[in-house]
TrEMBL record:
Protein name in UniProt: Pyridine nucleotide-disulfide oxidoreductase
Species of the source: Sphingomonas hengshuiensis
One Pfam entry name: Reductase_C
A Gene Ontology molecular function term of the record: oxidoreductase activity, acting on NAD(P)H
Domain Reductase C-terminal: 320-404
Keyword annotations from UniProtKB, A to Z: FAD, Flavoprotein, Oxidoreductase
Amino acid sequence: DVDVLIVGAGHAGAACAIALRQGKFDGTILVIGAEPELPYERPPLSKEYLAGDKPFERLLIRPAGFWAERDVAFRLGTRVTAIDGSAHSVTTDAGDTIGYRHLVWATGGAPRRLTCDGHDLTGVHTVRDRADADRMMAELPRVEHVVVIGGGYIGLEAAAVLAKFGKKVVLLEALDRVLARVAGEPLSRFFEAEHRAHGVEVRLGAAVDCILGEDRVTGVRLSDGEVLRADMVIVGIGIVPAVEPLLAAGAEGGNGVAVDGQCRTSLPDIFAIGDCALHANRFAGGASIRVESVQNANDQAAVAAKAILGQPVAYEAVPWFWSNQYDIKLQTVGLSIGYDLAVVRGDTASRSFTVAYLKQGRVIALDCVNAVKDYVQGRKLVTEGNSVDVARLADPAVPLKELAG
Ligand code: FAD
């Protein structure tokens, strides 16, 4: 038996092992991961790595020696397929049964796939792991026309990289604006305009009928019959949390596995953290959500580690996120879910501005575009949920730190 068994060697799993050793945990730690690599940073897969600007070695969260020194063991290329909560053991696809004292489920999610005809043709890609990015990069020299399906952050980032490579990119979004689920209209329109200015054809309200091709993709047919030429299709339509074995073992959940404020699932000694964990988030007004970000993975990992160390703390970390597209650096703090007012601070045409989201007069989130100062100074507004004077908030000459407290 191992003392702590971590399933998933991604951001959250790695951070949990690190936090345990930092907290002087001296029991055995085993990390089981489906991918062949040691834990690495996922965000560059649609940014610097895809662009060829950062080699894989620089994506590793820690070098191999770090794990060896701290006695964190890995079993990679291995998937946990079943959990027996009462026996405190898991089964892997290699046929092993491994007992645990504490289990930390940190499996993230699998990219949501299209279900239409042609969805599995060669040349149709999702971007979740290194293998996905490597497959795309290997094809790129032969690719001229790219269709990106989904105007979320990953789709937009991939479109930016490919447009910079000189590919002809069409981006399809089903809703009437990009980033509709995560940002307010001013930010959506800004990114839409930036992509158009870089030669990306952005199509809103677009519905895909099917993917065309014989052995590899040649096009995308829209529901109105129009056919777009495509040598490559990138599908960025979200993830499905990888929680099946846990739910099958009786854990509560649905779109993710339900956890309490200490990241405990409804099953004894089983925690869940990161993209797969459905939790009541203070910054979403207590609503039960999953947060897909490095921040959430790291901070929930620390919370689970604390609980295992017998020093329980509640998960209350302020959410933050970033996205890089072209020369635009977006930094987000807070969650804009349920906002009733979006205030633009500064001029979007200047390409440096902030969108502030308010709910009942309180600042709940900021999207800072090339505006590091607002991001740094505005965190406090979001953390404390300050009520602010909207006219002063909208005035970029008033530093955000003057509005706090
Ligand atoms: P993951 O990092 O996905 O790790 C889960 C691991 O578990 C995977 O390796 C998976 O293969 C493995 N696994 C799954 N099931 C099993 C099983 N049954 N047995 C064993 N192993 C299993 N976040 C940001 O904050 N900023 C960004 O700019 C940003 N950009 C992103 C760009 C891309 C292309 C992607 C894909 C994500 C991005 N994210 C970004 C999100 C961020 O990477 C995730 O929120 C983070 O990786 C979540 O960590 P996790 O440990 O929960 O899941």
